[in-house]
UniProtKB/TrEMBL annotation:
Keywords assigned by UniProt, alphabetized: FAD, Flavoprotein, Monooxygenase, Oxidoreductase
InterPro entries for the chain: FAD-bd (IPR002938), FAD/NAD-bd_sf (IPR036188)
Protein name per the record: FAD/NAD(P)-binding domain-containing protein
Top-rank lineage group of the source organism: Eukaryota
Organism: Lophium mytilinum
PANTHER family: FAD DEPENDENT OXIDOREDUCTASE DOMAIN-CONTAINING PROTEIN (PTHR46972:SF1), MONOOXYGENASE ASQM-RELATED (PTHR46972)
FAD-binding domain location: 9-215, 313-374
Pfam families, alphabetized: FAD_binding_3
GO terms for MF: FAD binding; monooxygenase activity
Length: 406
């Protein structure tokens, strides 16, 4: 492993939020790293995210990326609308026109909550923080991590290349992590939920009704074994997720290829079959969101997942605790993982008298496991609570209680 006076060399597998946050944090501390990613460029997939002050926001501040974040974040979208399956609005934090809002006086007023940011914008900020696109070695499919006699690790890739002499290999390679296979045989399992993601583009101009109905942030409906969740995105779109509690083979068994270019023509039949009893406005929202259709089968790792530590290898983000989106904590958990892991790596480099890199990673994992379990259990609790009769009403009641005058 790295000598007491040298900085560890770090391999980061994955250029998503977890990997790029870690790279940005290490760059600030002048810790050498190399990022490898399976894709040919940064991903533009995903909708909008809310970043929490003690998690995603804290990581951005530590990586000196706060200013670009404030330029792309949308504090006005930190609002929620809850609608019953029948279409009754139970809770709505949208306040109307912007000129009706009190002016924010300080940055804390604007960003003290959980401002939204498009995933693509966040990744662009993090990529720049990590050194730009040239800081990533693209098109690298990992085949094997090989421990060397001197305690370092060699990476072998599908294109026949190898990269050697890494003191630490970090799996930030998502739900189906190859690095996780070194540490555990556990695989993500089906959550019981499948979603059809439906896009409506440029809603302000093309569909003002949908823009007004969905609101500036999130619009949710939950019922027995089904949910409708709409998100306003900074790119001008509304993305709506029509979710069902169904078997894992649901989309295959349905008999329609929702990945085909003409998938939109099948949306009306799908909506009528599975969401035919919802209120007219909710049905209209689904039927008017056919610019892009994406089927999603949701997987997660079991709460309490952990692994027996191995020197020179660890995980963060979805590789460590992939969850469904029903608590909205996935990216925040990943960025907090990166923040805590960067602290452990820096401490090992700067304070060798307190223990080496192996001990530092053990300390990181000791804190990671209960934190990941907490997030996973919260997500599972939300999933079970949302996908049942009265789910919308329960959330609205909770919101009224939280916001009641004290």
């Amino acid at each position: 492993m790295a000598s007491p006076t040298s900085k560890p060399t770090v391999a980061i597998l994955g250029a998503g939020p977890a990997g790029l946050t870690l790279a940005s944090l290490l760059r600030v501390q002048s810790i050498p790293y190399t990022i490898f990613d399976l894709s040919s460029a940064i991903s533009t997939a995903g909708g909008t995210l809310d970043l929490h002050p003690a998690a995603g926001q804290a990581a951005l501040r530590a990586a000196n990326l706060w200013t670009p974040f404030t330029k792309h974040a949308r504090p006005e979208s930190d609002v929620m609308k809850i609608v019953s399956p029948a279409g009754v609005v139970l809770w709505d934090e949208n306040k109307g026109a912007a000129d009706e809002q009190p002016a924010a006086e300080t940055e804390d007023d604007l960003f003290g909550g959980r401002p939204e940011i498009d995933r693509s914008a966040l990744l662009s900020i993090l990529l720049e923080g990590a050194g730009g696109a040239d800081a990533v070695t693209w098109n690298k499919k990992l085949l094997e991590v090989i421990p060397a006699a001197n305690g370092t690790h060699t990476l072998r890739f599908a294109d026949g290349t190898v990269s050697e002499s890494f003191d630490l290999v970090v799996g930030a390679d998502g739900a189906w992590s190859k690095v996780r296979n070194i540490l555990s045989a556990t695989k993500p399992h089906y959550s019981g939920i499948s979603s059809l993601e439906l896009w409506s583009l440029d809603v302000a101009n093309r569909n003002p009704w949908l823009a007004a109905y969905a609101g500036a942030g999130n619009c949710f409906t939950f019922d027995a074994d089904c949910a409708i969740q709409a998100q306003r995105n900074g790119d001008g779109s509304v993305r709506t997720y029509a979710s069902l509690r169904v078997p894992e083979t649901f989309f295959a068994d349905y008999g329609v290829d929702f990945t085909a270019p003409d998938a939109a023509k099948h949306v009306p039949a799908y909506v009528e079959k599975y969401f035919g009893n919802v209120g007219d406005d909710l049905k209209k929202m689904l039927l008017s969101s056919t610019d892009k259709v994406i089927p999603r089968t949701l997987y997660h790792l079991p709460p309490g997942f952990s692994w027996e530590g191995k020197p020179g290898v660890t995980l963060l983000g979805d590789a460590a605790h992939v969850m469904t989106p029903f608590a909205g904590v996935g990216v925040n958990a990943a960025m907090l993982d990166a923040l805590e892991l960067s602290k452990a790596i820096v401490a090992a480099a700067q304070e060798p008298e307190k223990g080496g890199l192996v001990e530092a990673i053990q300390g990181y994992e000791k804190e990671l496991f209960p934190r990941g379990e907490k997030y996973a259990r919260k997500t599972l609790k939300n999933l079970d609570g949302h996908f049942r009769k009265g789910g919308s009403e329960d959330i609205a009641a909770m919101m009224r209680m939280v916001h009641a005058p004290h």
